Amino acid sequence: MPFYRNIAAKIALLPMIVISLTVFVGCIIYSFVYSLTNSKLVPVMNYVGFDQYERLFKQRKWDVAVENIFIYGFVFTIGCLIIGFLLAVLIDQKIRGESLFRTIFLYPYAMSFVVTGLVWKWVLNPTFGLENSMHMWGMTWFELDWLVNRDLAIYAVCIAAVWQGAGFVMVLMLAGLRGIDEDIWKSLSIEGVAKWKSYIFVILPMLRPMVVTAIVLIAAGVVKVYDLILALTSGGPGYATTTPAMYVMENFFSRANLGQAFAASIIMFISVVCILAPWAFYEFYLRNKYANN
Amino acid sequence: MSTIPKGPRPKHLTVGRIGLYCFIIMCALFFLMPLYVMIITSLKDMDEIRAANILNLPKELSFYAWPKAWSQACTGFVCEGLKPGFFNSIKITVPSVIVSVALSALNGYALAFWRFKGAYFFFGLCMFGAFIPYQVMVYPLLKIEDFLGIYSSLPGIILVHTIFGMPILTLIFRNFYASLPIDLFKAARIDGGNFIKIFFYVIIPMSTPITIVAVILQVTGIWNDFLLGLVFAGRDNQPMTVQLNNIVQVDYGVAEYNVDMSATILTSLVPLFVYFISGRWFVRGIAAGAIKG
After folding, report:
1. Averages of pLDDT over each 10 residues, chain A, 293 residues
2. Taking a contact as any Cβ pair under 8 Å apart, which residues of chain A between 167 and 196 contact chain B?
3. Residue B12's pLDDT is what?
4. Domain membership flag for residue A6
């Protein structure tokens, strides 16, 4: 096929091709190459092998960041799925004011992470926030000092994140629930299966594609979490809520330690690939294989 | 129980239904609580904030905080409020949305109708880019923009938003165009339409719904962005989210929570406005973004 055939389409897609190659592929190669150097303030080609990675894994701060991202990823993903599914089921009960409730559950998703972080920072303020309200109502035993507690601060981040993201899962799940055949509900009610049982044991497995999509999208977002934590805790108290993304940004822009930042960012990239690979393999390879048989 | 209710409304409320409504209303209250706290805090003066319950309505309305947040609050040494940030965000959002949507529509069109060998390979590469954490690409991209002489400028940040908006937008445009009847395209070809003519006279007039979805996605996404604005926009073009964070996180002086909350509301007005007027379109955007290619 001559090169100039369909030339208009090739020209039209040129920006996409150039961007994919230079930005998406090029930047990863660049980062990887310079992660093997001891660059500090500016990138220099001074090869030191995997020293930066070794140093990275010895950092206490990086350990904390990795631990946090696991806690956050686990609690946030599970929280969003459970609450999102629950809300979708509730809304699916032919309730009145359905669209009002849906609007309420989804509006946080339209707000930025910075706004979400700042609002929850105020609500969870240990002096004036909800703890104070509870004390004023006579519940003096009530404690909500998460933001200043090294062990609990990361869970405050999770609450804010679930508040923001649960509506997204609800929308996906609701779309799935609306696609369930009426006959399935009829047969379930003839069999006399309790409603909650039908939802968990029959309907949920049928929503598997929605659940998988939701998990992949959420998990890919988890690795990036940055603005939310910056606004809510600034990584504190101390560095108790720092994350890999923050570690990278700090080393790039305030510590002038480029080599470390590149190494850490490559680790982030690899972890995203580990999340995506099994899903992509299933979606694009196995499915096509079976579809073609 | 999955389609639109048929027949007369049930006359008797069962205990289960009442419980259901109670539960869903409690959930709604939880989701609304931060918004409520944000609004009432912005309408109190500082004495009342210190003395009273965070959940109480203001005893007397104080509008002190709003003008201050808009035009006087300090970020470091500059005390101009959020106003410059608001106009910067508009300057960033409008061109970024136009460029990224136009380019992605063209991409989607070329991919759906003018497929050439290798086109889908690059599309796959581009989609892969949607999942790479920004932290991996930030520094090399900064170097590229520096090389092009647009780092830390308006064109610089517009280019960045165009790049990072491209994967998801191209995907939704391609999916939309692929669902159009192919005969339409064939007829236009027989009538002598070429790549450009068919795009302008046949495809664009049919693209209104998907363009609305794409614009909503991009307006909220770009307005809510923090990280990219922080790194690429430069000191003179900092978007509203970055200025908001700077205003709230100042280390010195007395914290004015009412001003902070007014600033937070002001920053989320645009996305919330888009969300409330767009309604189902916003939901459609989520669904479109979540569908796999």
Report:
1. 77 90 92 88 83 88 91 93 92 86 91 92 86 79 80 91 92 87 85 84 86 83 87 85 91 88 93 84 72 56
2. 167-168, 171-172, 175, 177-182, 185
3. 64
4. no
Q: How far is A114 from chain B (nearest CA, A)?
A: 7
Q: Could you write out the DSSP letters of every residue in B143-202? A: HHHHHHT-TTSHHHHHHHHHHHHHHHHHHHHHHHHHTS-HHHHHHHHHTT--HHHHIIII
Secondary structure of residue A255 in the 3-state scheme: coil
Report the top-level CATH class of B83-255+265-290.
Answer: mainly alpha
Determine whether the interchain pair A16/B170 forms a contact, defined as Cβ–Cβ distance below 8 Å.
Answer: yes
Decide if B15 touches A, using CB distance below 8 A: no
Interface of A with B in 62-101 (CB under 8 A): 87, 90-95, 99, 101
Give the domain extent around A42: 36-292
Q: Chain A contact for B117, CB < 8 A?
A: yes
List CB contacts (< 8 A) between A213 and chain B.
290, 292
Domain count, chain A: 1
**What stretches in chain B show pLDDT beneath 50?**
1, 292-293
ipTM entry: 0.88
SS3 of residue A151 by DSSP: coil
| Contact: A12, B109; criterion CB under 8 Å | yes
Residue B292, pLDDT score: 43
Count Cβ atoms within 10 A of the Cβ of residue B222 and give its class: 0-12 exposed, 13-18 middle, 19 or more buried: buried
Q: What is the CATH number of the domain that holds A285?
A: 1.10.3720.10
pLDDT in the model for residue A137: 81
Domain-located, residue A29: no
Residue A30 maps to a domain: no
Provide the residue ranges of all domains of chain B, joining segments of one domain with +: 15-62, 83-255+265-290
Is A196 domain-assigned? Answer: yes
Cβ within 8 Å, pair B226-A114: yes
Residue recorded with tokens 């599914």: A85
Given this model, what pLDDT does residue A9 score? 85
**Which are the contacts of B36, defined by CB distance < 8 A and separation ≥ 6?**
B55
